[in-house]
Design goal:
mainly alpha; four-stranded antiparallel sheet; two-stranded parallel sheet; 21 helices
């Protein structure tokens, strides 16, 4: 086992060059824990006075370094690991002249460490600590600090005051089902006034867009209450209740089935009658659309309750064109679903899908029977391009069963007129990208339909 550890040669400090007679030597014991360093510093202060920190006079031979004795830089230093004794000597080739003392004057050295402080530093630190934290009488600074604390205590409330104010306040976010149950309770209470029920329906409409919330509304009996309110004599309640049903049933088969069992469909068809306010009729059509889209059973019930006849009456109301266009759009979507379903079924059976299939499409069959093939093309005379677009889309789908009726009604002439009109518009709006793009879409619809009917 090695008895001596030979450390690195100490580098001279710039501070020593600036102050003759005082040399600062940096210690290499940086790995010692802070607590041990603090104890060591206290022991050194107690055992050695400043006069004890005399210069170590090096020679060419190893000499023991006294405790607390300053070590000049540039020496070869070693320590006995068993006894802890430090020894030092001159480096090889060093004559030691620069370490010799002048006369009887002792050159003092102070050992500097990153973690160990001198006796004077320790005294100053303890004095500063006592002055700051253990003074007997308050100073001017402490009085100002006390005043600022008093001011802060007056400005900010205590914890007890805050807790008292928060008593009874529900700080936890309620689950959706809890909120829905509260609004359903409002709808079910005879003491709730009109504005409270209107507010509850408005809030429910927001929540039931989520499929799970809509299902929960049915499970707790809220859907039945909403459908009941659709028959209210208050138009505001009837329209809002229809709106809630439409949002709940949209792409939600479970709610669609539940609504059919609760006889929502006949109620919605009644709300489409001419004597109802337009706001109520629009919300009822929205709910009806959500109830039967992508839901074959609902579509069958729609025909069973003469829904197509009710829609057909809209052609007789000049002021109801916006509602009629929405109804035609719904019929177009339902026809598209049913035609695609029939063709997929025929393909799976290996049958020809290019032939006549109108007899296999329930809605198209009824529309042909009731004269829709002649009614719908009449809307091409409207002045609104948006309406013309919706009508052209409907004619595209209806052409499967209405081709002969379209030819007899000279639909081709109307289509050719529209084509020329839009070609002219396209040349005039070629610099406006949005308008020209929309006109190109309309031209495409007309051209495709003309090919289909030729």
């Amino acid at each position: 086992m090695l008895q001596y550890l030979i450390p690195l040669v100490l580098l001279s400090s710039s501070v020593a060059d600036q102050q003759p007679g005082l040399v600062l030597v940096e210690s290499d014991d940086s790995g010692v824990e802070n607590d041990n360093n603090y104890n060591k510093a206290v022991n050194d202060v107690n055992e050695h006075d400043e006069e004890d920190l005399e210069v170590f006079q090096p020679t060419a031979d190893w000499q023991a370094i006294k405790p607390g004795q300053g070590i000049p830089p540039g020496l070869h230093v070693r320590m006995n690991l068993q006894s802890g004794v430090k020894e030092a000597k001159l480096m090889d080739g060093d004559d030691g002249k620069k370490y010799q003392s002048n006369g009887n004057t002792k050159q003092k050295f102070i050992k500097i460490d990153k973690n160990i402080i001198s006796k004077q530093h320790l005294k100053e630190a303890l004095k500063d600590f006592r002055d700051k934290f253990h003074h007997d009488s308050p100073t001017e600074d402490s009085s100002e600090e006390l005043g600022s604390r008093l001011e802060a205590s007056q400005k900010f409330r205590s914890l007890d005051e805050i807790q008292k104010e928060l008593e009874g306040v529900d700080l936890f976010v309620k689950k959706d089902i809890e909120v829905i149950m509260e609004y359903v309770a409002v709808l079910n209470s005879s003491s709730s006034n009109l504005s409270e029920k209107e507010y509850a329906l408005n809030e429910l409409e927001y929540y039931v867009h989520q499929i799970d919330n809509a299902r929960d509304l049915h499970i707790i009996g809220g859907l039945a209450l909403v459908i009941k309110l659709m028959n209210s004599t208050e138009p505001s309640l009837a329209s809002r209740a229809s709106y809630v049903l439409g949002s709940a049933a949209q792409s939600n088969p479970q709610v669609q089935q539940a609504a059919l069992k609760l006889e929502a469909l006949p109620s919605l068809l009644r709300l489409l009658s001419k004597d109802k306010p337009m706001a109520v009729r629009k919300k009822a059509l929205y709910a009806l659309s959500s109830l039967i889209r992508l839901f074959p059973i609902g579509q069958k019930e729609f025909l069973k309750f003469s829904g197509l006849d009710i829609f057909q009456k809209l052609f007789e109301e000049p002021s109801s064109e916006p509602l009629l266009v929405k109804a035609i759009t719904l019929m177009t979507d339902i026809l598209t679903e049913q035609i695609e379903h029939v063709r997929n079924r025929l393909e799976k059976q290996g049958q020809d899908v290019s032939g006549e299939i109108s007899e296999r499409v329930p809605l198209l069959k009824k529309m042909v029977e009731k004269g829709w093939c002649r009614l719908v093309p009449g809307l091409l005379h409207t002045t609104e391009n948006d309406t013309k677009e919706k009508v052209l889309q409907a004619l595209h789908v209806m052409a499967t069963g209405c081709k002969s009726e379209f030819q007899e009604a000279h639909v081709q002439d109307n289509l050719n007129r529209l084509k020329l009109e839009w070609l002219k518009d396209a040349s005039q709006h070629h610099q406006d990208h949005d308008d020209s793009e929309y006109v190109r879409i309309l031209l495409g619809l007309v051209t495709d339909l003309m090919k289909k009917l030729s």
